[in-house]
Design goal:
By secondary structure, the chain is an alpha+beta fold. It has 2 domains: about 90 residues, Ribosomal Protein L25, Chain P; about 80 residues, Beta Complex (RNA Polymerase Alpha Subunit, Chain A, domain 2). It is built from 4 helices and 13 strands. The strands form 3 sheets. The chain has a 6-stranded mixed β-barrel. Strands 10-7-9-12 form a 4-stranded mixed sheet, with no helix packed on it. The radius of gyration is 28 Å and the shape is elongated.
Length: about 220
């Protein structure tokens, strides 16, 4: 699990578009705090804390904490809707969902592959072809895995790496349950694929020549 990011939070008195713009001018990132059987609350988050967390990828699939003035304990949350500036690609609005140990959510988790250097297929020049960069899972909101890890140390050319190839953390289940779906494959080297294509082409040409020869011979006999 990644280190939990903690954000300072203030209740935003002015809501709506005007309130959000005012918050940004004053160095805040506006947002909404909702969920947990409580009423939604308009909030402000410190811009530098949000930007730093975004740069580290902490606004995706990770449990966060917010420090709300007047509350003795930190509130566990998830960033569920992060709006980005279309030009600067930086957060301009963040919605936070309250979570508890009982909360379960559907969320996409990144995949990671290890031991590529010892994979027989990679050593032969094969290429790791990632079919799914993320896998959607149902998980406890307070125990979301940072990533799903796949060991490809024994994967050869033509092999598929399926979801069964990783040890899912306790309580984490893939949303696709009717099959052992593919996450990645070890594709053949381009030179080998080209050679196979040439061999198939030569075999087809030989067959065609043989057919033509037989037809010609049959015609001469007649």
């Amino acid at each position: 699990m990644a280190n939990t990011e903690v954000f300072y939070c203030e209740v935003r008195k002015r809501t709506g578009t005007g309130g959000a713009r005012e918050a940004r001018r004053e160095g805040w990132i506006p947002g909404i705090l909702y969920g947990g059987d409580e009423d939604p609350v308009a909030i402000n988050l410190r811009k530098n804390e949000v930007f730093n967390a975004a740069a580290k990828g902490a606004l995706k699939s990770q449990m966060l904490k917010i420090d709300v003035p007047g509350q003795k304990e930190l509130q566990s949350v998830l960033a569920r809707d992060v709006q980005l500036d279309p030009v600067k690609d930086l957060p301009i609005h963040v919605d936070m969902m309250r979570i508890s140990e009982k909360t379960r959510i559907n969320i996409e988790v990144s995949v990671r592959f290890i031991n590529e250097e010892t994979s027989p297929g990679i050593k032969k020049g094969g290429v790791l072809n990632i079919v799914r960069h993320t896998v959607e899972v149902n998980a406890p909101a307070t125990a979301i895995p940072e990533y799903l890890e796949f060991d490809i140390s024994e994967a050869d050319v033509g092999d598929s790496i399926n979801i069964s190839g990783t040890d899912l953390p306790n309580g984490v289940k893939p949303l696709i349950t009717d099959r052992d779906f593919t996450v990645a494959t070890i594709a053949a080297p381009s030179a080998l694929r080209s050679s196979d294509s040439d061999d198939e082409g030569e075999a087809q040409t030989t067959d065609e020549e043989a057919t033509q020869a037989e037809a010609t011979e049959g015609g001469e006999k007649e």
